[in-house]
Amino acid sequence: MWYPAELTFSNYIPLQPERGMFFLNKDNTLWELDFIPQDREQFFKLYGYPVELFVAENNNLLALPEEVGWITDDKDIWKIDIDDINYLLEECEGKIYIEIEDEGEDVVPLYKDNLVTIKPLE
Q1: Which residue from 14, 47, 107, 122 has the fewest beta carbons nearer than 10 Å?
Q2: How far is CA 96 from CA 24, 62, 92, in A?
């Protein structure tokens, strides 16, 4: 069963910049840090602080950053990557479906290998 939700981001303040951290541009495009900046303060001043990806619905947290792992187009399922996230941000304005358990009244994400599955809300 699929439940409508939204990709949301939260900034955090790291001790040091690290490769693999995600940042959002002003145009809402996600990019990954692939170098270690020399001047930490200047870098954060220019680009802001890194972000973590969450899945939520009406301020109800459905999935933590480390739980967002699979994406589907209803034909195939694959490990989500930055291009998939940017597609969802650009084409779907971050609106998605998250796969949930079919039983009960509570919204409980369905986990596969400790990860949730999402798909575009179209």
Answers
A1: 122
A2: 18, 12, 7
- Token readout for 55 is 């899945």
Residues 77 and 87 sit within 8 Å (Cβ to Cβ): no
12/50 Cα distance (integer angstroms): 6
35/17 Cα distance (integer angstroms): 9
Per-residue pLDDT of 79-116, as tens digits, reads 999 999 999 999 999 999 999 998 778 899 999 999 99
* Burial status of residue 50 (CB atoms within 10 A of its CB: 0-12, 13-18, 19 or more): buried
* Nearest-angstrom CA–CA distance, 99 and 111: 8
